Amino acid sequence: MSLGILGNKIGMTQIFDESGNIIPVTIIKAGPCFVTQIKTKLTDGYNAIQIGYGNVKLKKLNQPKIGHLNKLNNQPLKHLKEYKVENPEDFSIGQEINVDSFDDIQFINISGKTSGKGFSGLQKRYNFSIGPKSHGSKNHRAPGSIGMGTSPGRVLPGKKMAGQSGNKQLKVKNLKIIQTNKSENILVVKGSIPGKPGNLINITIAK
């Protein structure tokens, strides 16, 4: 069994359970992925498999990736990802990995890039409070004091300041699988996951 799979976020909706409770769910297109490389302790010093996801035109790939995939007689794949495994001999080049891997799995971890919000101020980025709005105050959404004066006389590293918000890698752990659709390679998980619809995500089995 593979330790992970790549996919795309389709979007969010809600479903009803047997008791009539509303469950917010995210629908995910998971795979199919194909094994593009097998690494062993003998050849690479560790056991792992590399999988590829997302069919793409050959002209969209750079020469190193084309050479890597041609060497293994694989179809052009856009995304490559490596997963450490204990038994690489159970896999073969070109083997398809899909939602069947999650048959007996209840909980998964999902990582992906969050939605980018551009250059943001402190209220939006870090939930700072705003200043007073009346009595002649001119400090509404300003950052305020950012450091000491004489000593140490500088702004300390890591200070929360305005800057790019979002567009960062985020991992959400222990999401429950509600439904699977093997014919369409669809996973339905409880709750929300990072990013916008169409976002590339990495699905791994929760420990």
CATH class of the largest domain: Alpha Beta
C-alpha end-to-end distance: 14 Å
Strand content: 35-45%
Count of individual helical segments:
2
User: For the CA atoms, what is the radius of gyration?
Assistant: 23 Å
Element string (H = helix, E = strand): EEEEHEEEEHEEEE
* Structure summary, number of beta strands: 12
What best-fitting shape do the alpha-carbon axes yield? extended
Integer count of domains: 2
Helix content: under 10%
Give the strand order of the largest sheet, numbering strands 1, 2, ... along the chain.
Answer: 1-2-11-10-7-12
Report mean pLDDT, rounded to a whole number. 89
CATH topology of the largest domain: the name is Double Stranded RNA Binding Domain
Sheet having the most strands = 6 strands, antiparallel, barrel
CATH architecture of the largest domain: 2-Layer Sandwich
Structural class: mainly beta
* Poorly predicted regions: none
Structure described in brief:
By secondary structure, the protein is mainly β. Helix content is 7%, strand content 41%.
Descriptive report:
The chain has 207 residues and is mostly beta strands. It folds into 2 domains: 4-116 and 170-205, Double Stranded RNA Binding Domain; 117-165, no CATH class. Helices cover 7% and strands 41% of the residues. It has 2 helices and 12 strands. A 6-stranded antiparallel β-barrel has the order 1-2-11-10-7-12. A 4-stranded antiparallel β-sheet has the order 5-4-3-6, with no helix packed on it. Strands 8-9 form a two-stranded antiparallel ribbon. A hairpin with a 4-residue loop joins strand 10 (169-181) and strand 11. The mean pLDDT is 89.
